[in-house]
Design a protein that fits this description.
Length: about 90
């Protein structure tokens, strides 16, 4: 499941660093978070979809690694991303 262009723009608009920012760490975390939310909703109705569950776990791991990197390199940006995306530490 990929994000539609409209959904991606809506999600990224809150955390992007500049108008043309498409690949910074906060943007990547925002996109991963939206995909994780979509897959979580999917798995609520399709409990035995194990391949999707595996993909979801990989996305969660990837997001955790990016958040660790962001915390290590840019504390203020890290806190900003957590509040805007409503993530817990």
């Amino acid at each position: 499941m990929s994000l539609s262009k409209e959904t991606r723009e809506k999600v990224v608009s809150g955390v992007r660093l500049s108008s043309g920012d498409t690949g910074s760490t906060p943007v990547q975390v925002a996109q991963l978070t939206e995909r994780i939310r979509m897959l979580t909703e999917h798995l609520k109705t399709h409990k035995q979809d194990y391949s999707t569950k595996r993909g979801l776990l990989k996305l969660i791991s990837q997001r955790m690694k990016l958040l660790k990197y962001l915390e290590r390199t840019d504390r203020a940006g890290y806190r900003n991303v957590l509040t805007k995306l409503q993530l817990k530490k």
